[in-house]
Design a protein that fits this description.
Strand order of the largest sheet: 1-2
Strand content: 5-15%
Number of strands: 2
Shape: flat
Helix content: 55-70%
Length: about 150
């Protein structure tokens, strides 16, 4: 196995080269231009942004109500909803469910929640082999690298 890549260090090293830094700046500038062109093509762009902002604000303000509504509807459909106060409790709930079914290995899909909770290392420490189903995530798993997510 190769050593995990220090992504922050690699980025810092990459940007020390002036040509790389200029290329990176140009890529970001082009992305911004495309975004602005797309926005200009929609006459009601600002109005839609404001509506989206209001929806987000409303949803976050009433999140507890929506979550309880989701739970009630899920239960009506025979689904068990589990609540966890933190990552430790989340991981324990998942492990308890898997252990009650004598699961020794599982294939999982990409999930930021699971990543943020450190679920995979927790399950592995408790004897459950976890295989990522997403090809990129699987490659990083085989290289013993943490997942990385490009956000723009």
């Amino acid at each position: 196995m190769t050593k995990p890549i220090n992504q922050a260090g690699a980025a810092e090293q990459f940007l020390k080269d002036q040509a790389h830094a200029q290329q990176y700046d140009q890529i970001l500038w082009n992305a911004r231009l495309k975004r602005d062109q797309g926005a200009a093509a929609v006459p009601e762009w600002e109005q839609l942004r404001e509506i989206a902002s209001q929806i987000k604000e409303h949803t976050l303000t009433h999140l507890a109500d929506y979550l309880e509504q989701f739970e009630a509807q899920a239960k009506q459909n025979g689904i068990q909803v589990h609540w966890a106060k933190d990552a430790v409790e989340h991981n324990q709930i998942v492990y308890t469910i898997l252990n009650s079914h004598n699961v020794k290995s599982l294939v999982k899909s990409k999930s930021m929640l699971q990543e943020e909770c450190g679920m995979v290392p927790f399950l592995e420490q408790n004897g459950i082999t976890v295989t990522e189903s997403d090809l990129g995530e699987r490659i990083q798993q085989l290289d013993e690298e943490p997942p990385s997510h490009i956000v723009m």
